[in-house]
Design a protein that fits this description.
Layout (H helix, E strand, L loop, with lengths): L2 E7 L3 H11 L4 E6 L6 H7 L3 E4 L9 H8 L7 H9 L8 E4 L4 E3 L3 H8 L6 E9 L5 E12 L3 E4 L5 E4 L5 E12 L7 H13 L4 H14 L2 H13 L7 H17 L3 H14 L4 H13 L3 H12 L9 E2 L6 H12 L3 H14 L4 H20 L1
Parallel strand pairs: 1-2, 1-4, 2-3, 6-10
Antiparallel strand pairs: 4-7, 5-10, 6-7, 7-11, 8-9
Helix pairs in contact: 1-2, 6-7, 7-8, 7-9, 8-9, 9-10, 10-11, 11-12, 11-13, 12-13, 13-14, 14-15
């Protein structure tokens, strides 16, 4: 099997050498420079990467730059950049592994692909981990940017995906993991312009409309985000799974939290649970809202329900839902309604997940002081 790794970049000097080391399991590495000025291309060439130049304009806010996208010239779009690079990868490669500069495959990734790939496969599906700046895991989901070479084409100006000239066949690669340690300081205003463009181009694409709402929440105005997301969840769509609708509802919760409307946030959290009742995410979202409102009975109910649900490897999951958080808030909720013995057991379990957390350790000590005389009275 012949495997190519490829990526697009602009001013990624800080990531260049580490990224190449990660990708050296490939038969060849291809990269497209969309306008660097920090010497990234020179470093990559020194490391043996085949680098191609395609300077672009990233600022779509200027009218003249938006006009260029219509003329298919040098205004930056993710799909066009990736497709341009894909043309340089010879057809005799079987599989291509697309990656971003702040992502890393774990060692042994090539063997993981070789073990799981099938001749008819178009997309490989594998675990994707998103980490916060402090190294804590924020969420995980399945990714599908390892793909067959023949017939592949990227679509969408932003949040781009690989499409094919034939019926897609997804291959699960259980031993492949991609870690994403995002650089949160990188300016991303142009990204919001791109997703606005993608949503305008594809008004009937659920994913593009949802992504616009999500990106407005992260990068823009929560009021605009709420309006966009409400339009998405209230519209009738064909074949949208419950977990996808729950993702949109979760963003609506976040938008209304930012707007200070906790009642609306709580209602959307309940809708999120109804949309995907077998996932912890909705319950943990509801837990956070209940805690912020001082609703300890609600916090206890939602947290203990979440703890009875297992993780699913096939959907996007808030990593905190499987750490100390639900145990910790369940303990607070139990204490808030007078269930001190149960609160102590729940707090101890939370401390097992985060043994160095002084706040949780302090809660355990306080609950032990409360429960000890109660036990002597029995």
């Amino acid at each position: 099997m012949k495997i190519a790794a490829y990526f697009i970049f602009r001013d990624e000097r800080r990531n260049a050498r580490e990224l190449v080391q990660c990708l050296k399991e490939a038969d060849a590495i291809f990269a497209l420079d969309t306008g660097s000025s920090d010497g990234t291309a020179e470093i990559l060439r020194e490391e043996g990467v085949q680098v191609y130049d395609w300077p672009t304009v990233q600022d779509l806010s200027a009218p003249q730059n938006f006009a260029r996208t219509k003329q298919n010239s040098r205004a930056f779009r993710f799909d066009e950049a990736r497709n341009r690079l894909l043309k340089y990868i010879p057809d005799d490669f079987d599989v291509c592994a697309a990656i971003d500069c702040d992502e890393r495959f774990r060692p042994g990734w090539r063997a993981a692909i070789e073990r799981g790939w099938t001749p008819e496969g178009t997309h490989g599906r594998y675990r994707y981990n998103l980490f916060d700046a402090d190294g804590s895991l924020l969420r995980y989901s399945l990714y599908d940017r390892v793909h067959a070479r023949k017939g592949a084409k990227w679509i969408h100006a932003a949040h781009e995906t690989v499409s094919f000239d034939r019926e897609p066949v997804h291959v699960y690669l259980p031993d492949l993991t991609l870690d994403h340690k995002r650089n949160w300081d990188t300016p991303r205003g142009y990204y919001l312009d791109l997703i606005r463009l993608a949503a305008r181009e594809e008004p009937d694409d659920w994913r593009m409309q949802f992504m616009l709402g999500r990106d407005l929440l992260v990068l823009g105005d929560p009021r605009q985000a709420a309006e966009q997301l409400e339009a998405v969840v209230n519209r009738t769509w064909d074949n949208i799974p419950g977990e996808s609708k729950a993702d949109a509802l979760k963003c609506l919760v976040g938008a209304h939290q930012k707007l200070g409307d906790l009642n609306a946030a709580a209602n959307y959290a309940d809708d999120m649970i109804r949309a995907n009742p077998t996932s912890r995410d909705g319950y943990v979202t509801a837990v956070r809202i209940a805690q912020s409102r001082g609703d300890w009975a609600g916090a206890y109910m939602h947290a203990t329900t979440a703890l009875r649900l297992a993780a699913s490897p096939l959907s996007e999951t808030d990593a905190t839902a499987f750490g100390a958080l639900p145990w910790d808030i369940a303990a607070s909720g139990a204490a808030g309604i007078g269930l001190f013995a149960e609160a102590l057991e729940l707090a101890r379990k939370a401390l097992e997940f985060n043994p160095g957390d002084e706040r949780i350790a302090g809660n355990v000590r306080k609950l032990e002081e409360i429960v000890a005389p109660l036990n002597r009275e029995k």
